[in-house]
Structures are given as C-alpha cells and as structure tokens.
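Suppose you are handed a protein chain with no further information: no name, no annotation, nothing but its sequence. What can you learn? This example shows the usual starting point.
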Amino acid sequence: MKRPVSQTLSSLFVAAVLLALVAPSLHAQAIYRIVGPDGQVSFSDQPPPASVKATTLPANGRSDSGASEAGGLPIALRQIVSRFPVTLYTGDNCNPCGSGRSLLTSRGIPFTERTVTTQQDVEAFQKLSAQASLPMLTIGGQQLKGFLSSEWTQYLDAAGYPQTSQLPSSYRNPSPAPLAPSSKPAPASATQDTPIGAPPPPPPSTADNPAGIRF
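A reasonable first move is to predict its three-dimensional structure. Written in structure tokens, the prediction is:
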C-alpha cells in the first residue's frame, strides 16, 4: 500500500527539523576548565592563553565509552557554571558556613571555596565585600552575605542551576584554598665564610696589645 504524497512530505519535513536540532550538538565546541593564578576555577568555550593552566573537557561531557570523565560536567551544567560561577567564602568555627556548604553539596552545585582565616585573608575579604561577617556566596557577580537557605536557593534557581544533583560520581570540587596568598618572609642566607652561630675570630695580638683586646 502506497503512502500519500502529503504524508511522505510531512515525514521528510519532521526529519529535517529533527536533523536541524541535532546538528548543532554534533559540532559542539569543547569546554575549557581554567584555573587562574589565584586558584579560581572557571569554565569557558574560548581557549585561554598558553600561560594559563586549563583542561579541555569533551563537548558532550562523556568519554568514548559513555562514562563521564573525571572532573567532567554535563554540558548544560557547564554552560551555567561558565556564566554564573559559584564561590563560597568560609571561616573556622562557623556553623552557618557549614550549613551553606551542605546546601551546595546536597544540591550538586559545583563551587570553589575560599577560606578566611589569616589577617591577610580578612583584609582581602573586606576589600571584596566591605564587611567581615561570614559566610558569603557569590553567584556570578551577585554577592549573598550571610547564610539564608531560601535566599541562596532563590538565586541558584534564577541562575539556572538544577534543583537536584546532576554531577557525575567522579566529579570533585576543588579543595578549599586561602583567599589571600601566603606571604612568609624568605629565610636569611648565611655567608659561606662564617658558619651560623660561630664567634668571630679574635684580632691578632701585637706588641702594643699582647692580649688581643678589641676596643
């Protein structure tokens, strides 16, 4: 039994539309995981300069075997992270900081954590936020000061983050790192001629100063 011409054309049209929708995903660009000089992690579809450390993630978020690569994210989530990266600022003995971290972790939000513990960290944090209270969450350029579950959830939803985790089992967030770089002074170097702690040699004795007394 022959199919009507109109039905055949309709089927071809549907196939063409589906092909047009699928074709862009077949040529999706690679996503770069970029680690900045301060340890900040970001994602971009543009290659970074050669001097910047970056890892190329597969465009479909999976390896040839179909399993997600270590550190890889689903492409939809990578796109959100590239537009609205999340950073959590925490301190020691901070219960709200732990609550905020738990919310992000349970929801499967990829985030970078910066710790504020030293005086240098505090000064850098005050310059960043004009305050000294923790925690603070940044979503893109938005700063959320203090932990309020409903507020954090509202902004994460608005940024497009999924409400349930879509992270692959192999994914790990970067380890927490100090906000300010360490500035320990370099140890003083000893001269090669005189060992450290050795007393200076006595002055030579002369006829006028037989005991070699130094004045």
